[in-house]
Every structure is written in C-alpha cells, then in structure tokens.
C-alpha cells in the first residue's frame, strides 16, 4: 500500500515537471495615424488586419490589394499560401479606442495591417512567448511620408500609390525655349532700332536673359 502511494506521488511530481507548452495567443492590434510629421497620434479608422502563422524570411506582402485581401506570397515566386486569421473588433475598458483581435496557435506570426482611408499597409513578424494568453502590438500609419516604402520600428510600411515627382520637370525645354525665343526677339528688335550693332547686342542680351529666367523656374521646381 505504501509503495502504491509512493508511485502515485512520483507520478504527480513528474507530471508537474512536464508542464504543457502552447502558443495559443490573442494578438491584439492598436492602430494609430499621424497626418503630419509633428502631429499627435490619433486612433486610425477603417483598419483591416490579418495574422498568419508564418515568417517574413519566406513570405511577403506583394501589393496593397494582397494586404487588403489577406494574401501572403512566397518570396521569389507567385505562390500564394498560408491561411489568414482576420482581425475582429475588440474592446478593452482600459483602452479608449477600437482594437482588432487575432487568435493564433503557433510562433512566429506575420501581422498585416491596412489603413483603408489612406491606402497604406504594413507588416511585421511577431514572436510569441510560451503560454501567453494576450499580446498587444501597435502600428502607426504616416500618410505624410513622401515615399513608397520605409521601416518604422519593426514594421515594414508601404504606399503603393505614391508617385515620385521628376527631378527636373520641364527644365531643359524651358531653358532652350527661353533662350531661342529671347534671342530671336532681341535680334529683330535690335536690328530695327540700332542697325547691325543693335541687332547683335539685342540678340545676345535677349538670349541670355530669357535663358536665365527659364533656369530660375527650374530651380524652384527642384527645391519643391
């Protein structure tokens, strides 16, 4: 009898040593927007989010449409895969904003967030701890940034709809047109007024002056 009790006690101790490990976690996303570089953060509206049991070494988000529809693409291929877990509305009394909850069961996960109002998206890899019931994470959308992609902390952010301005819009055309037009006009005017000398002086002066004005407009466009 005593031996049986000892065996039972040993079994309980061993069971306690081999505690089960799981990664069932509620990933909860806070979404912010910053409309200007020095503006305060405000809760973002119309955000769509997904979580994938995947990693960013193998998988990526290929476009805004894929982000919006919860599609990951294997890097270097057109292969789409990995089922998404879409975020559902979630509220916490201590947090005064709308949250999105995604329940996952393994680590790591790829979290994708889409700002549908500003047509921006981003994604990041998130590692989960053992037996972690909840994990809060945040994303900030910055529509004021004039670039197609940038890194914000651990987030890779994208604006597929940003169009870069040309470096020198109309610069060569403006300079050439101004120079030629000014030269011809000055030459004709000088010829009528002061003979050969006036024609030569007016042509040279008119060409230089109009060409310089064209360059001035170009510089302003470049600095903008």
Protein model, in words:
The chain is α+β, with helices and mostly antiparallel strands and 224 residues long. It is 33% helix and 32% strand. A six-stranded antiparallel β-sheet has the order 7-3-10-11-14-13. The chain is globular. Residues 4-16 and 172-224 have low confidence and may be disordered.
SSE topology:
Blueprint (H helix, E strand, L loop, with lengths): L1 H16 L7 E9 L8 E2 L3 E6 L6 E2 L3 H6 L2 E3 L5 E2 L2 E3 L1 E5 L2 E10 L4 E7 L4 E7 L7 E8 L7 E4 L2 E4 L12 H53 L1
Parallel strand pairs: 1-12
Antiparallel strand pairs: 1-2, 1-9, 3-7, 3-10, 4-5, 5-6, 8-9, 10-11, 11-14, 13-14
Oligomeric status: single chain
Provide the residue-averaged pLDDT: 78
Uncertain segments are: 4-16, 172-224
The outline comes out as: globular
Quick synopsis:
With 224 residues, this protein is of the alpha+beta class. Helices cover 33% and strands 32% of the residues. The strands form three sheets. Strands 7-3-10-11-14-13 form a six-stranded antiparallel β-sheet. Strands 1, 2, 8, 9 and 12 form a five-stranded mixed β-sheet that branches. A three-stranded antiparallel β-sheet has the order 4-5-6, with no helix packed on it.
């Amino acid at each position: 009898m005593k031996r049986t009790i000892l065996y039972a006690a040993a079994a309980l101790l061993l069971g306690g040593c081999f505690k089960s490990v799981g990664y069932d976690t509620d990933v909860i996303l806070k979404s912010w927007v910053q409309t200007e570089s020095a503006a305060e953060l405000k809760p973002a509206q119309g955000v769509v989010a997904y979580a994938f049991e995947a990693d960013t070494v193998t998988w990526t988000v290929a476009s805004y449409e894929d982000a919006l529809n919860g599609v990951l693409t294997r890097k270097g291929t057109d292969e789409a895969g990995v089922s998404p877990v879409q975020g559902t509305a979630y509220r916490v009394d201590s947090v005064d904003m709308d949250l999105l909850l995604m329940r996952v069961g393994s680590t790591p996960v790829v979290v994708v967030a889409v700002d549908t109002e500003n047509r921006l998206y981003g994604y990041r890899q998130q590692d989960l701890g053992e037996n972690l019931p909840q994990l809060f994470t945040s994303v900030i959308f910055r529509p004021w940034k004039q670039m197609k992609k940038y890194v914000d902390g651990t987030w890779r952010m994208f604006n597929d709809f940003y169009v870069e301005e040309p470096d020198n819009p109309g610069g060569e055309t403006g300079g050439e047109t101004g120079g030629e037009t000014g030269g011809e006009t000055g030459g004709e005017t000088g010829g009528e007024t002061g003979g050969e000398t006036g024609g030569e002086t007016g042509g040279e002066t008119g060409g230089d002056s109009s060409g310089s004005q064209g360059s001035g407009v170009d510089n302003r466009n470049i600095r903008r």
